[in-house]
Amino acid sequence: MRILVTGSGGMLGRRLLEEASARGHFALGLDQPRWKLENPEEAVALIRSQSPDLILHTAALTDVDGCESREKEALQINGLATKFLADAAGESGWRFLYISTDYVFDGNKGAPYEVDDPTGPATVYGRSKLLGEEACLSAGGLAIRLSWLFGPQGRNFVRSVALRLNEGEKLKVVDDQKGRPTFTRDAAQSILALAESQESGIYHLSNHGETTWFAFARKIAQLMGLDESRVRPCSSEEYPTPAPRPADSRLSTRRLEAFRHALPDWENALERYMEEEGWI
Asked: Strand pairing partners for 5?
């Protein structure tokens, strides 16, 4: 299969290219500066020239706080441009898979979100990604929601915490936000398995188990053999951000498990990632 990955220079895009190639597919990547979602007509034209069988659309404006002050740009890139791509896929017979986010929920349910739960994003980023989801689903595509993503060659929570701990810092990390971490290497395997199937609709994908950002950071310190007390808890009120974070963005992976592609525990994934980066 001829697979095209948008955002191929990103943390997830790189892993998808690797996994697609490892599974025997002909994998192509598109990313800036050659390919820009700011010009959706040109972006579609470049994709047409590649004649893909399947598009894995990971490219997006992902700066959650930055989107609050760049609303028009976020809606253009994550929403409208996705509609251009999804519509072109429908017209051309390409399959379309869209990477979405836990931010399409407000985090107030108090229990893991199922794929068919009502959405209600509380941020510009979440609203823009929801627009992309809707465009994908309208074109008969597959939308996969991820949460708390980490992996090699990208900015992420684990890397930030590990680097700061290595520099001898003491950290305060919020302890009133729950979620499910997701390792890009594990995610890529499941995404490709779903892409190779004829699945459509929405899937939630994350590593097994749940945690808080504080407990996540303490586990990082523990794996590094450092004093865990250097990581102290705080409330969200003590760490304000331009975009509100969902208090409980746990995603239920029940549909993924029925597909028989559940991911390993997040602690296992974290340890493998930290070994890969040489932190342990």
From this structure: 29, 56
Position 198 scores a pLDDT of 84
DSSP per position, 132-199: HHHHHHHTT-EEEEE-SEE-SSS--HHHHHHHHHHTT--EEEESS-EE--EEHHHHHHHHHHHHHTT-
Name the active-site residue from 113, 125, 203, 273. Answer: 125
Long-range contacts of 258-261 (CB under 8 A, 24+ apart): 259/193, 259/194, 259/197, 259/199, 259/203, 261/189, 261/190, 261/193, 261/194
Can you tell me the distance from the alpha carbon of 96 to that of 89, in angstroms, rounded to the nearest whole number? 6
pLDDT of residue 158: 98
Judge whether 103 counts as a catalytic residue: no
Gap between the Cα atoms of 133 and 39, Å rounded? 19
In order of 16, 184, 251, the CA distances from 189 in angstroms are 8, 9, 18
Tens digit of pLDDT for each residue in 9-46?
999 999 999 999 999 999 999 998 888 888 888 899 99
Phi, psi dihedrals of residue 107, rounded to the nearest 5°: 85, 15
Distance CA 81, CA 37 (A): 6
Whether a cis peptide bond, with omega within 30° of 0, leads into 33 is yes
Which alpha helices (DSSP H) does 11-144 contain, by range?
Answer: 11-22, 40-50, 64-69, 71-74, 81-92, 124-138
β-pairing, 2-6 vs 26-30, is parallel
**pLDDT recorded at residue 89:** 95
Of 143, 146, 149, the closest CA to residue 195 belongs to 143
Give tens-digit pLDDT for 58-77. Answer: 999 999 999 999 999 999 99
Contact 127, 133 (CB under 8 A): no
pLDDT digits (tens, 9 = 90+) for 171-201: 999 999 999 999 999 999 999 999 999 889 9
Predicted local confidence at residue 260, as pLDDT: 85
